[in-house]
Amino acid sequence: MASGTLADDIRLKLGILSPAERKVARVLLASYPSSGFETIATLAERAAVSAPTVLRFVNRLGYSGFPDFQAALRAELEDRNASPLSLYEATDDAGSADSAAGLMARSSKLFTAAVAQTLAETPPHDLERAIALLSDRKRRITLAGGRFTHLLAQYLGLHLMQLRDDVRFLPERAVERTAVLAALTRRDVLVIFDYRRYEHDKLALAQLAQEHGGKVIVFTDTWLSPAASHAEVVFPSQVTTPSPYDSLVPTLAIVETVVAGLITAMGNEAREHMKHVEDTAHRIGLV
């Protein structure tokens, strides 16, 4: 999982915490991030530990005290909820103009680092599980994106349609969308793209799919969409970019990695399906 959030730091340190400190960690993770704003006494009571244990726990994370820990959490939430406008206004040199060469050099550095970090922090078992779910012909796949990320949902979905049957996009119209969601079953895989300023419906979609026994795959940023708590697989990506808009370049790299894995996993079945699709397209004059 991508680094950079307090929740990730807590998970990484679970192995070095004392049993009592681990109780505090699990209480925090169970209702993160809201639990981090409770009082020391409340956290101690919920975890069935002493107040000094809570203080030792935040010290173990590297904070001088509980106010320091909560300040870091507030800063994280500000980043998590940032909009392009707020990022633009927070950038000192937002109005300055790079030369073309300078912009290219800065973009190259930022995108290269973001893609490399995203791929390096993607657990192989998560990639393997996603490929297994998406290549399973017994499963039906539904894809849903957001304001900008619907483009990536379509990109992945169109590749999937060339490789297998039973792939669809979540409809926009209310009646059709409701019908699709009401018909979710254990054989469904819901693929969600959701990035900061998260869209409320994505959490509901993930909950519905999970309640019906289906599997959920979430593509998100390092702060994690709320839908991630209901997902079987989560792909967090870096979003660093030279503009106030979050970058989707690292996510595209993950999507194309998944597609490459699907082609390998599905083998001749994928090739035969692609051939059938091409033949059909020729017959109706689309190519």
TrEMBL record:
Superkingdom of the organism of origin: Bacteria
Keyword Transcription regulation among record annotations: yes
SIS domain location: 130-268
Pfam families tied to this protein: HTH_6, SIS
Domain HTH rpiR-type positions: 4-80
The UniProt record lists the keyword Ion transport: no
Keyword line: DNA-binding, Transcription, Transcription regulation
Gene Ontology MF terms in the entry: carbohydrate derivative binding; DNA binding; DNA-binding transcription factor activity
Family matches, as SUPFAM superfamilies: Homeodomain-like (SSF46689), SIS domain (SSF53697)
Full protein name: MurR/RpiR family transcriptional regulator
